[in-house]
Design brief:
By secondary structure, the protein is of the alpha+beta class. 63% of the residues lie in helices and 9% in strands. The protein has 12 helices and 7 strands.
């Protein structure tokens, strides 16, 4: 009467309203199948109490329609699920009483409403109540029932019909068991994987929270010496030192200004969303700013030509982008860092390629989940971790891939829907 996949779908349902809707669709399907069986019996000449059987099916259809109407009227879905399952048991008992009683092999279909009650109704009390009702009605069918249907009084045909019903009941039970157990095993595996992923995310978040506390303390401690150094550099007479020293002073001023800006952003916390702007122009400006800070790095860029889409790039994205550029520059040595950009269907894709070196599989597997070992003199190995966390918060993701010809590609994908410029 009900398909195995329908049982597994009901198992996966977590919302009472969804459970009610699924049961309603299954009930309409069962009624359609019952009508097809009745049509086959009429063609084969099987003697049935047609009025009683049609009345039972009409009652179930009426109940199902009332339940759907109640759901649209905002009735509690759990109550409607219970009423529907009770109706299934009562109508099935009436059909069995009209077609041989306990001798009808389809009596094992009593298990289906009980199964759905155990899966879909929390607590378990209703499932026990429904199981007791089904067992009681099944027992009464031994005493109160009409004879098993025959075709022209042919006892041999009646026995073959009984055997066919037994086979059909066995097939339904076997498919139900296979579908139920396989889906349950799959769901348990998915839940274990989700728990493992959530545990890793929790550990990563704990690391980021601890890092944020330490960063706030470091920002507070560094603000005074940075201000002191800025005053000293500003008071230094640019005409006194040699020309090469004057250039160094300008670099110091630029670096100190960058440090002050970074600390200001850290103290202010989350920034407001940027206004829509030309994506290609933004990328060019940001890459030019980074190139000014790292003039010794050979940077090769491939940006789309022409005017780009108007998008709002979250301010938190740019520090994450710079982290990847700095990591690629440190690892590349004298080799160039290559940046390829593309925007399609509301997604920005950035490939940051370091053409030198590679990651071993273990480090690739841990990239973005834990701090990586850093070979830089003052490197903490946190750049990839922070970038991964930032992109995850913004709805994007980061992938690190070793190139066959050598080097590592950091592929960034960030959702950037096109917007109108104000």
């Amino acid at each position: 009467m009900l398909l195995p996949m329908s049982v597994t779908d009901a198992l996966a349902t977590s919302s009472p309203m969804h459970a009610l809707a699924r049961l309603g669709r299954l009930r309409w399907g069962a009624l359609l199948l019952a009508l097809l069986v009745l049509a086959a019996c009429a063609v084969a000449g099987v003697a049935l109490p047609w009025l009683g059987v049609l009345q039972a099916l009409l009652t179930l259809a009426l109940v199902n329609g009332v339940l759907e109407w109640g759901a649209r009227r905002g009735q509690p879905p759990q109550r409607l699920v219970r009423v529907g399952l009770l109706a299934d048991v009562v109508v099935l008992s009436e059909l069995l009483a009209l077609t041989g009683g306990a001798a009808n092999p389809m009596a094992t279909l009593y298990l289906l409403p009980v199964l759905f009650a155990a899966l879909l109704v929390p607590g378990g009390g209703f499932a026990w109540l429904l199981a007791g009702l089904a067992a009681s009605l099944y027992g009464l069918l031994f005493f109160w029932h009409l004879p098993w249907p025959t075709a022209g009084g042919d006892a041999a045909y009646a026995f073959s019909l009984h055997l066919g019903g037994m086979w059909l009941t066995f097939a339904v039970s076997a498919f139900l068991l296979a579908g139920f157990v396989s889906r349950l095993a799959q769901q348990l595996a998915e839940e274990r994987a989700a728990l493992a992923s959530a545990r890793e995310a929790l550990l990563r978040d704990e690391q980021l929270v601890a890092l944020g506390v330490q960063a706030a303390a470091a920002a507070h401690a560094l603000s005074t010496p940075l201000n002191t150094l800025t005053l000293l550099v500003d008071e230094w007479d640019p005409a006194a030192p040699a020309p090469e020293q004057a250039a160094d002073l300008n670099v110091m001023r630029t670096q100190l200004a960058t440090c002050r800006t970074a600390l200001s952003r850290l103290k202010e916390g989350a920034e407001t969303e940027a206004r829509p702007a030309d994506l290609h122009g933004l990328l060019q400006l940001r890459l030019a700013a980074w190139r000014a800070l790292r003039p010794e790095v050979a940077l090769e860029t491939t940006l789309p030509a022409g005017e780009g889409p108007a998008v709002s790039v979250p301010p938190a994205f740019w520090p994450a982008f710079y982290n990847l550029l700095n990591n690629a520059a440190e690892a590349a040595g004298t080799a160039p860092v290559v940046v390829d950009a593309a925007w399609q269907a509301g997604w920005l894709t950035l490939d940051i390629t370091n053409t030198h070196g590679s990651f071993d599989p273990a480090r690739l597997a841990r990239a973005g989940l834990t701090p990586l070992e850093s070979s830089k003199p003052a490197g903490l190995g946190l750049g990839v971790l922070l970038t991964h966390a930032t992109l995850s918060r913004l709805g994007g993701h980061l992938a690190l891939v070793n190139r066959p010809e050598g080097g590592v590609v950091a592929r960034v994908r960030l959702p950037l829907p096109e917007r109108r410029q104000e």
